[in-house]
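hey so i finally got around to running both of the ones u sent me last week. sorry it took forever, my laptop kept dying halfway thru and i had to restart like 3 times lol. anyway pasting them below in the order u listed, first the sequence line then the structure token line for each. didnt double check formatting much so if smth looks off just lmk and ill redo it

first one:
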Amino acid sequence: MSTELQNRYDFLLVFDVKDGNPNGDPDAGNLPRVDAETGEGLVTDVCLKRKVRNYVQLTRAGQEDYDIFVKEKAILNNQIAQAYADLGINLDEAPKNPKDGAKRNTKGQGQGSEVQSARQKMCARYYDIRTFGAVMSTGANAGQVRGPVQLTFGRSVDPIVTLEHAITRMAVATEAEAEKQGGDNRTMGRKNTVPYGLYVAHGFVSPALAQQTGFDEDDLELLWQALTDMFEYDRSAARGMMATQRLIVFRHDSALGNAHAHKLFERVNISRKEGVAVPRSFADYVLSIRREGLSGVELIEKP
């Protein structure tokens, strides 16, 4: 049996991309996301969580306790309703527990302690809910869950350059398009890439919230595996070469923590090597960690 989480964790995820688009912005023609003031590249927390979800869905397929709530083609309200059905709660009848009310206020919706029961059922079944939390107050209503694991945006160490490439396809989709091309069955397209970018995202794990969702030591170990290996299972021509270069974890000796997270993160410094004007690989950087003076905090480096 796994054990409850007893320790607070703060971590840095260091990853890079080469000749790819790590996270396109649909409101900007799918250009790589950029801080307009500094030119630094951005990768949203939603993007990183998606990759964790995909990794868990792939590696734990068929294991009910590791199902994924927010996944492709999922109908979320149906999944919430299924939790009530599995609990034997008929949302068209009056609640079984008189404390939840003498009648059903809204048919098809849980109320009172039913919502709490459904919330616990959803946490137990779906890894991403007990990890990142979820809003499940739609449909049958299973309330809201604040997840113990929180991630920030990834931000590049240096400003990035976004390139736009013209690409051609030696075919057309329709006969009308072929006639328009005058027999030259060639169509044009655009592709956006970052030549190289090294990104850093920060994360936090709260044992207090973990106890509420059931996130345990086994779930935490799976999270570390996902953050380390997720890019290996997320290959596409658009994303180029992406990899986790370092996962630096600060494990506190207590549940409330023994140091401020931002002070721990300041111990990690990433800078370009002397003489490198235009970085094109992780080898062009130096990553150093100030290890002295850590009291009540264990430093763990993965991989």
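and the second one:
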Amino acid sequence: MIEFLKAALFGIVEGITEWLPISSTGHMILLDEFVKLEVSPEFWEMFLVVIQLGAILAVVVLFWDEIWPFGNYGKGKHFRPVKTTGFLSYCKKDIWVMWFKIIVACLPAAVVGLLFDEFFESLFYNGVCVALALILFGIGFIIIENRNKNAAIKIHSLSEITYETAFIIGLFQLIAAIFPGTSRSGATILGALLIGVSRKVAAEFTFFLAIPVMLGASLLKIVKFGFTFTGNELMILITGMTTAFIVSVVIIRFLMGYIKKHDFKVFGWYRIILGIVVLLYFGMAGR
């Protein structure tokens, strides 16, 4: 029972930190210092990634009409149906186009991740590197939001994102893939804001971009671990994923409401404070 409660705690932290631009990695590293699951190192490595599937499911459920490219259109949606007959009449053209753009945005991180994932993890997955990434991107949020006060927003809807814009956002996601603590959502939102995307669109595109990225990473970890789960391991994984899903639903709704009236500077300050805490902790621990 204690291990299930620990898994639920990790799910809560994952559900909160995966979508807010504050780095799930930084929080998981800190939590792992004080709360350790009694599992094998191989399962733990897989658990940290696959628990994200619960967070992904929250995006799928909340944004189903915006991401499913088949069937009837929901009321009030800005996507336009294809005016044709046969199979294509059941397709949502704009949503297909959006998915092609998401694929383009995924390419940089996918290529580098497949080739160098373990190398970068061994090089940068430590407290000091995570803390520095937290601080630097926290400063970045504050600077860019201050700059954007008087800057014109160029992109107000998902359909206005071009393939070039999607690729640039993907390059920022690549930074997060290389440097733990950057925050995948933080990096992509920051990159989108930098090139004139509105906060709402930046957040939505980041959510949708997470679906193939997290799904692919989770499948790779499961294949690497194998499908030989013990009953206890399977229940721990399901507990973490379920908790991450429930918390993610709440956090995503909160964030979409929050950014209608507020900017991201508060997350920048939070990142800086957390980064300093991580630096001090690992500095005093001599690691």
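quick thing i noticed on the 2nd:
The chain has one domain: 2-284.
anyway thats it, ttyl
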